[in-house]
Every structure is written in structure tokens, then in C-alpha cells.
User: Fold these one by one.
Assistant:
Number 1:
Amino acid sequence: MVSPRPKVARPHRVVGRYQVYAELASGGMATVHLGCLLGPAGFSKLVAIKCLHQEFASEPEFVSMFLDEARLASSINHPNVVASLDVVAEQGELLVVMEYVHGETLAGLLRLARQKSQVTPLAVVVRVLCDALDGLHAAHTASRAGTCLDIVHRDVSPQNIMVGADGNTRVLDFGIAQAALRSQATAAGTIKGKVAYMSPEQVQGRAVDARTDVFAAGVVLWEALTGRRLFFSPDSRDVVDLLLKAPIVAPSTINRAVSPALDQVVFRALQRDVQQRFQSAHEFAEALRDAAEEGSRRDVAAWVTSLAAESLATRLDMLQKLEASAIHTQVAVPLPVVTGSSPYAALPPTQERTESHTQATTSTSISPHPPRSRWRRRAPWLFAGIGVQSAVLVWLLVGRSVPAPLPLSASRPPIAAVALPAPPASVAPPHGPAEEMPVVSADSMPLSPAPSAEVKAANKKPARAASSASHVGAARTAACNPPYRIDASGVRRVKPECL
């Protein structure tokens, strides 16, 4: 439940992330203010904010239905419908944030035309009503997940038709109209609102559909063509009687420029029997285009600026001041924590995204600590590179310190194969009987000459006792595997103990 809060007189107030400024329009249920959406990184956007009166914002049932209908209204995406951007329920207030349209409502433009005794051009009226009907048809046929939402405006009136200075007409307040109607009918058993624009079935409490909005648009068309009110009386009960029983006067009797074909279009839209009425807003718009010439958007824009030049200039000055104020306003809106790998994840709003900052940013979230220096960021990689280079250098030095065997010279004559003598008979082999040594070829022999007999005799070991014969054989076999060694000059030398 949204609790009421007393109003405070000040230039603007802040509700959530919105700044609410001067009042643009006022109605029985809410007031429309000029507002500004403030976001991080200096982002701002002009919006229109509709603030509900306290007596409506304090009703829980109304609030729940209002929020539900606002979500439905966000499903309508059409250039002739004012987009609903957000719903805010904070600080005791309930706000509807809408697209800002620089222009005037059709009610204000018709009032200015009466004050200046000007007749609205037929082509402009046709264009404005056709745009509004296109927006209504988009609402009637809007769908979500393949299901038609059956959105009925239920409050089509000149106050809810905005004619922009760009010549485009938009329909307002889908969500509020539906939620307000349900809340009032449930709470008091009666229907409140603009009775003069309701259809007969709506006044009588019967089921409503798209044809209800067709009847209301017919009333708006009649008043735009004649410059008068169709169902008007100071007493609302008299308005209901006129709505249900009074004959419809042809617009051509008041405005001679209206053709009979246009009269027939108005009569069919205002049929009290829903079966004889236009069955859709699209059908109504097509019949209106066939009955009269439709003006261009430029014609509508010229009509708006000529009638509302003073009010538009005042509002434009207000917009310029608001934009200047928003630029210099420091908004304490924290940046969201980003968990991706974007290099711009942790950029503050005022810091330029330079190339060096992009390369240095490695964190995936916003950290409260100051960024590390360039040396501290690069030190681990530098040390790792030095270690890899050192390991490669050591490997090269160790690998090249052991000389490879010299190849045989092609000019040296081949050496005949020499059979090595068998070991002495007194030395028993470690495993089984003694075997003959393999014949060593010239390719496996060293380049130095074979040792002499004296060297063999000097290096020959005396025989040991029979008890240690097995140990000697094992040691000799291990020492003679391989039976040569490589000296400092790279020459293979046969081990003396293996002779």
C-alpha cells in the first residue's frame, strides 16, 4: 500500500531516479509533470510523469490493478500511441512515466480555436482522427506471446489525444483508463469518468470491446467538426439521458464544409447498437479517409504551431532550462557491477576510455581499491619471461657441452674386424657359461691404434679367489657396458678392463 505524503512546494522533487518538475496538465485523477530521467555516465532523458492524486494512490486495489494495466499498456508499440516507459511506487507516490511529446492535447487546441473564432480545417481533423484510430486499433490487436490482450482504452476523449508539433497524433493513458474504471466500478458500484464520451453499453455497465472506443472516437470527431460539445449538461444524469436517448444532429448543419458522406461516417460511428457501428477502429479510419481528404503531417504541424505558439514557446524555454540543469546536476547513481570480460567493465563515468586504459583494465568488477601501477601489473609477466629464457639458455649450454662422435674419414683405409679375446678361464660368468664376445666392426672401433701386448699384460688383473669370482664377473660386466669411453677430444677408447 502506498501511504499518502504531504506535498512540499519546491522547484522540483526527486522520486527514485526521476526528477519531477513543473506541472503541464491536471485532471480529476492525476497531474502530468515535466520530468527528467537521470542515469549513470551523465545520461538524462526528458519524460512526462503522471502523478496520481493521493486519494487514488492510497487504495490498495486500485494500485494493484493500475500496475497490472500499466504492464499491459507497455505491450503496445505504435507511433500513434504514447509509450509507457516505467511505473514508480516510492516515497508515498505512484507515478507513471511516459514518452514526452512536444505539443498540445486536442482538447486544448479546440479550446484555443474557439477562443480565436477559428474553424479547424477538415483535412486536419481527418488526419488527427485517423492517426488516433490507428493507435486505438494497435491497442485492440496488441498481443503477448501470441495471445491477444483485448486492450480497450475506455476513456477516449480530446484530453487523451496528444497532437504533436511534429504533426503526429498519439493516444494517451491506456493503463490508467482501464485500471481506474475497474477500481471505481468495484469500489462504489458506479462509473466515474468522462461520461460525455462513454458508449451506451459502458454507461449501462455491459461488456465492452473495441467498438466502445469507436463510439467515443465518433463523439470526438463530431466535436472536432462542429467546434461544440455533443452530450453536454451541468448535471451528469442529464448527460446520461442525452447519451442514451437524444438524436444525433448532423455535423453539416453546423459546419457547412462537412459533406454528406462525412455525415454518414459520423452517424455510423455513433450508432447506439453495437452491431450497426463500425466493428473496428481500422474500419472507421478507412471510411473516414474515403469520405474526406486527409491532410498531411505538415498541415497538422502548421495548425498546432499557429494555435499554440505561445504555450509551446513557454514550454520550450522550460525544456532548455531543465536540460541545462540536468547537465550540471551531479547524480550519485552507482555503476552496475559487470561480470563479463569487457574492457570497459570498470570505467568510471567521467574517465575517458583510452587505448592504454583499455589494455590495462583486467578486473571484471568494480573494485574499491585504486588501480595498480604499470610496473606492478607487468612484473609477473616480466619475471616469467626471464625464467623461460634462462631455462632455454641452460639447456643449450648443457646440450652442447657433450661433443658428438667424430665421423669416420673417407680417406682412412678400413680396419679389419678384430675378434676380442675371451675372458680368462678362472673368471666365471655371473649367469651361466661364458659366451663369446661379439665381433666389433670397424664402424664401432675407435680411431686410435689397438693397444699392444705389453699394455694388455700390464692391465691384466691377477685372478682372485674362487669365493669372489661371481662378484668380479658382475662388476666387470657392469663396467664394460659399454666397453669403451670417450676422451676429451671425442675419441672412443676401449676400456682396459674389458680387453
Number 2:
Amino acid sequence: MSGATSRREATCSNRADVILLVPAAARSAAAPLAAPIAAIVKVGMTVEDMDRALAFYTGVLDFTVVSDVEVAGPAYGALTGVFSLRARIVGLRLGDEVIELTEYLTPRGRTVPRDSRSNDRWFRHVAIITSDMATAYARLRVHKVRHASTGPQRLPDWNPNAGGIEAFYFHDPDGHVLEILQFPPGKGEPRWQSREPLFLGIDHTAIVVADTAASLGFDRDALGLRVVGASENYGDEQAHLNNVRGAHLRITTLRADAGPGVELLEYLAPRDGRPYPPDARPNDLFHWQTTVLSARPETTLQALRADQQRDGALVALPDAPGAAALVRDPDGHALQVVGP
């Protein structure tokens, strides 16, 4: 997490997802941006047991279910690269933001590695804004959540962008890392200053990257996200938040015109985080994806894979409007481009 940013509010409807896999080696080039995205629609993750996950997200974190579908058939297998899949997909809303949980009923993928650390490059989280850190943390303790931080941390005032922010990392039942975060007065969007409800919405999703410049070539130069904030975070508080000794992060925040932000977390120290598994598939439990909306998805894809030798057509599912594609950024994180 980093400092305060603002965004223009807009409304974006959820879309059924159609995915085309492009190799994880994708890198942006200096191609001109012809179709910047209109919105970050949602963040998704793969879960092992949907009923268990829903009990956690609705019962502990106050999300509400907005959609619940089951999908199967050769088209879905072809577009995900997961043969003979059957999956249950549930949309959950908190405030203005939506997350999407997918359970692969068949075939099952790999679990999140138990020895994962916050500087491994498959790490990511969503930042859930709370109106009262002490009450939120107490609720998580009652429900016996597994800590990822040693406890809530208040970032120091010497850091102008992050000073006064309180944050805490924890795990959901599948091992995904989530963050609760409280902004002090004067930081964050005005709506994050509300004193109720306890959980207000999602400010951003954060991903670990190896090199900020390479990631900006993908997210800013090709995708069209705007850089709206930057910070260097280090010290005891940051080390205990990330639970990584000597953590020193370069944090860059990007946004579209609507939806949550994306934070790039580059560990300047320690630099021993492990790379994203090159054979990762969407049914693995460490799979996350960010869904973005483009008015001209094929043009957006051309910009994203400008230096690729392999092209692919957008795929349409028989029961879904529009089309979409799943590409991977320089570190292997999945990005789903959805078109009208």
C-alpha cells in the first residue's frame, strides 16, 4: 500500500469473461497507445471450496453476492487452457467494487505455497478499506484468521505519502493475502473517511514486480493506466507489515478512470523473492486476475503484445456478450481485457 490518490468516479457493469491465453513472456513495447482502457472492472481469484470462501467473504468481511453461475464446455477449456473444466464463478460486491471468485470443480489446480513470502512475485492482495482498524482487527481475531503481518502497523509520519496509514495483511481460507487499511484524515478518497460501515470498499490491488520500469511499459505505456502516486516505504513498520526482514519497497500507484487502483510493489530489498511459476494456470489457487474494460479490445491487445511473435484472436463464449483476452504482464500476473 502507498499514499493517497484520487480518481474520477464512474459506473461500470460486470461482464461475462472470455479469455485467450498469451504467453507469460509478454513484454510491452514502445508502440503508440490507441485504446486506453476505460475502467478496472474487478479483481478475481481462484478458490478451492466456494461455500467455504463465501462464508468467509460474506460473514467476516461483509461482501454481498451479486452473481453466481456454473460454466462448462469445450469453449471454456479452449479459452483458459484448462481441459475439461467445470467451474463455479461468484461475483461479490463491497461498496462500489467487485471481486470474482472461481472454483474449478474439475480439474483441481495447485494450492498456494505454504512458504510464500510477501516479496515472492506471485504475491498480490486487495486493500479493503476499514473505518475502524481496531474493530476490524478484533473481528478478524474472533474469526481466527491467519496473520500475514505481525499485527496492524501505523506507517511513520516521515513518509509524506504513507504516513499515518494503518494496515494489516492476513490470509483468506485459501491462503490469498488480503489487506485491511485505514486512511488518516487528508489521505485517500473522501469516501474512505466515512465512519461506517466497518468495511467500506476496495481501494486497490497490489502486485509484486521485479522492475518498475518494465511494468510501467506494460501498465502505463501499453494499457493506458495513469500513474497517480509513488512512494518508498521502509523501516520497522514496513518490515512487520510485509513480514519480510529489511523490507524496502518502491511503490507506484496507477488508475483508470473508474475502479480500484493497481499498485506495483518493487522490493529494492531484499531481492530474493521467487519468480511467478512459468507453468501457472487459472485453476491454480495462486491465480489472480485483474479485469479491465476496453472499447476496442483488439487494439488494446495489439499494444500489449506489440513485441510478440504470436497473436491470437479474441474469443466469444456462447452465453456471454462481448469478448475478452487474458494476457500476462512482465512478471506473470494475469490481466483480463474485456470488450463490449
Number 3:
Amino acid sequence: MITFTEPLVHKHYSGRQTFGAGTANEDFIDMRAEVGLLTRNVQFRGDPEWSPDNQYGAVIICHSPGDESTTCRIDSIELYHVGQAFILGSYPIHFHMIGTVHSSYVRNNAIHHSFNRAVTIHGVHYLRVQNNVAYHTMGHTIFIEDAVETKNLIENNLILDVRRSWSLLNTDQTPASIWITNPDNIIRGNHAGGSDRYSYWYDL
């Protein structure tokens, strides 16, 4: 339950639209606003004054020599003013060339006002990216990088307000909420809206 002390500034519609009422093909669409909590008790952020002007924020890179040689668990934190524009690989959360990571996950986080994506999966298998909220990000928000990544689970994430970027790849000028380069990954239950171009982009 959400309670407001002041009224909302904009109208938010909630209801059900029915199509083909009374026919064998009757169907409906539930129309409800997505609500995502952007705050957490633990914060990881760039400098609030310097980062926005320079699009240069904080980053987390998980990297190791190979399979199961590191465990990286990022859970229930708020990341904002993160990622670094114009710098390849400087993403808010970047799993980089680890291989198999059964014990690692990214879940229940809020990632917002990012200058370079939200989560990047590069050369990684069996990573779980679940129940995160990403808002006001630049470029492909959840990014499966090279098409060698398999068996990753991207589930129940809310991705809103994805913005084009002129400082990343050419495809980031028409960004997707989730960029998918290999179909051998599980992508389910995610909600994506308000992208400058796409929700899901399968580039196989």
C-alpha cells in the first residue's frame, strides 16, 4: 500500500480494458502504473556535484581469472550517479570475463541516473539479475555483451526511462532496456517502459 501526503502531479490511470466483450475471443489488458522504489539504506554513488556535469560516476567491476574464482553478490543497495560516459567498460555493475558464476547475483537494487548502462554481463554464465529497478539510464540498460554469455537469468526487473547516448556504441543511440545477443539466456517477468527506442533488442 502506498500513501501520499501530497497529491500526485500527473494523472496515473489504473483499470482494465476489455476487448471483444461477450464474444468467444473476449480478452482484457490490465493497465496499471509501475511503481519502483529508488531509495535503499546503503548507497553507492558518484559525487553529487561533479558527476552529473562530467557524466563520470562510480563503477563496480567484478573480474577474475576464470570459472568460480570469485563471488560477487550485490543486493539491496542504491546506485546513482554511476557509470562513466565515453569510457568502454565503465558500467555501474560490470561482470567481466569471469566465466561460470553460480554463487554470484545482482538483485533488489535501485540503479538510477546512470551515465553508462546499469548492468553488463560480459563473458559470464549463470549470473542472476533479479528484482532490480533501473531508472533514467543512458544506453542499453541490461547489456549482454558479446554473445558468448549463456544460462544467465534476467528476471522481474523494472526498467524505465532509458535514454539514448552519443558516448557509447552506435546502437546506444537507439537504446534497448535489455540488449540480448544470445538466446541461450532466461529473460522473464521483466517490465520495461519509456525507452527512447526499444524494450527488448535481440541482436543475434
Number 4:
Amino acid sequence: MGADLVEWQIRVARGERFTREQQEIVFRGHAIEARLCCEDPARNFLPQAGRIALWEPDRTVRVDHALVSGAEISPHYDSMIAKVIAHGATRDEARLRLAQALENTVVLGVATNKAWLAAALRDPEFAAHGATIGFVGKRVTALSQRKANAEALAIAATLLAATCRYGEWTAWSNNPARTMHAKLSETEIALRHFDDAYHARVGNTDVTLRIVALEAPHARISLNGVDKAVSFVIDERIHLACEGESHSFENTLHAPAQRTAGARDGRLVAPMNGRVIAVSIKAGDAIGAGSALVVIEAMKMEHTLSVPHAARVTAVHVAAGAQVAPGQLLAELETAP
């Protein structure tokens, strides 16, 4: 017999008596909910904002959401974008269904905790009922989204070549002596196409793959004889979903050299969209390592920015109340002697 808990909460709040006897409440199966959030587990779950390039929720479980591809995730609200709920006859069945559903979910364009949640559900400690309130703190680094491997980079470069979206690829040739070059984020990739296959050199690793089917935003790639289904979007970046992981690469082949963002090069920059709620420094101030410099509010959370070394403030470019974007210069510093 099912029970509508929300209905009974309302009835009890109105002063009605709960008329069900304990023996009438029948336990049937298990359900587990995961809250999908725009946040980066590798950066201490820093909230993220931006445009969802591709959204394809898993259809085997319940997903509560209001998303579409192209939706803008604002920095002004909570970072949660969907609830993913799986049911099973046992806890393990529900747990594994939810992990699989999260891995099958495609959300590209903005960093999320999707892969972290799936890894947590498959973690032996969680599976053995051993997870406590300290589980996240202990396992955050180990469960954080893995860095892209050579195969993911090779797939991204191949899709970039096959769709000819950038000028450096438009002179593509089947001549095996002709090598096309890409630079995705910080990784150099050399790519050749012959014998109906793409041959990629990623760093010191060779990867050979074939495109079995390609109809954007989906493709099927054969790698070492194993077919892999991937989803992708190419805009200003190359977004790729493969084997439960999400990646976003910048095509930096022709990008000019840039200074590293952050206080290490004397520049304190905003790590996210948000509103500045406090500025604790002014030009000429001497600051100690770890001192609070600027506080940014994003998605109902406050984030304090500091530097790991003593420094002197040479310029401040923001004031309380300002809206800032990722990479925006907040202050200039010089390292103290």
C-alpha cells in the first residue's frame, strides 16, 4: 500500500490525526537520489555558471529538472540543476542503477559533479554502508573527475578534424604524409588519416581509431576494436562525453601565449561568476600569506580569495557590489621580499 508522505504532512499540519497503523506501512524496495550540481569537485566543489551546450538525461530513471540544451546557468541561484532518482528492490540495486544513470547522463558545457557522484556510489565504503558524514572530506580527491586521457584527447581531435570546424583542418588530405596538428588545452596532437582510420599521436602515446557513425551531437568510435558511443558539441571549445566522463577542451593551436591566471603572476583574478561582497585591501597594503583579500558570493555561497605568500598590493580593480566574471582581474600584487 502506497503512502503519499506530502499529503500526510499537510494533513498533520492542519491538525488531522495520522490514521494508518504501523503494521499497515509496508516497506517496498529502496530509492536513492543524487543532486546534480554545476560545481567542480576538483576545485573543492567550486560553483560553476555558464551555458549548457548539451543536456541529455538518462531515461531509465526519474530525473526532476527544467533544463534544455543551451540553457544558461546563472550565478545568482543554487548550483543544483537536477535530481536523479533510482529505485530498486534492494539498496544495492538502487545504488547501481543510479550510478549507471549518472554515467549515461550527458551534460556538457559546464563542469558538474556527475562523475564524482557516480564514483561515490560505486565506492566500496559507500557500498558497504560505511559512508559517514566524513565520507566526502576523505574521498573528495580520489573521487574527483579524472583528467582526460590520451584516448579522450584523440577522439576530440578526430571529431574536430572530421567536422572541419576550424580553419587549420579545412585542407585535410588522405595523404598519409600529411599530418594535421591540434593543441587541445595544453596537449599537442598530431593526426593522420589513412587506411580508413585516424592515427593520433598524443604526447608520447599513439592512438588509432575509426569513426563508425557520425551524426552530431552523437558519434560511434571504434578504438582497438571496441565501439564507444560519444556525445559532443563544438563551439568555442570541444565538449566531449565518453564513458561517463565529461571533458571540455580549448582549441589553443593558434592562441597567443597568456600569463597564468591567478595570484602567482601578480594578478588576483575571479575564479567564477559572482558578486563581490567584501574587499579587504587597498593599494599599498602589505598582506600576509593566507590573508582574506576579496570575498565573492556565488550560488548562495561565500568564497574568500587569498594568496599563499606575503605580498604588497599595487592596485585594486573592484569594489563591494561589483559583478565579476571568471578570469576578471581583481587586484595586482607583488611578492614581498
